[in-house]
Design brief:
With 238 residues, the chain is mostly helical. It has 9 helices and 3 strands, in the order αβαααβααααβα. The longest helix is centred in the middle third of the chain and has 30 residues.
Length: 238
Amino acid sequence: MKKTWNIIIKIIAIITVALSGYLMLTSDVQLKISDTHAMVKQVVREIVSDSEDQSLRYATQFLEASGLEDDLLQAFPKKYNLDLSYADLYRLSTKYDETGKITPSDLNLENSNRLEEVVNKFIVKEINQKLKEDSKQVYHIISIYRYSIFIIVLLYILGALLIIFEKYWASILIIIATGGSFGLLWYFNTEATSSLQTIYQGIFIDISSGIWIGLILGIVIAIMWPIWLKFNSDKKVK
């Protein structure tokens, strides 16, 4: 009976580790725009002010005066969310490393009309400009990020294997994998939010509940596993 319970606990621990890793790598960070219409108005004005095309200025002034601008804005949802997982960020970093830029399609930005296409291009242009300004740091971060995902997966796998062999230091590998992946996502969240708010203050990036659950599961199993081993070894001594 004791042997059966030991096997069951191991299986539960391994499943928890696997679930923690899965949630940490596939759950989303969510880009949220609090007021898309206000952002579009701001973006359009910046496009006009940067442009030397006088006809574009007149057209914008006409839209504002006629009230057609508000009609065009109805093409945009009032609020907007964009979800990106750790895996998506890895894909984006690889694409940027290869081409040196990000495109609207890379961010799954849809162009349902001309206005939306112009705004999306402007946003991506600003992002690329910011990435270019900090190119040395960006490429350094990309290198760390691309290698880190393999290290994190490897640590989760090794942690699960050490659980099978009843090793205490499985907890160390699990806590490093969980904390490392969360730390990278938190860093991305902070830096990306800071950069995007130079375009529009109402842009935020939040960590989804899936990532928090993955973090909690990783911490819980890292704490409970050595406690179980100690409890099990004390029973064997008795």
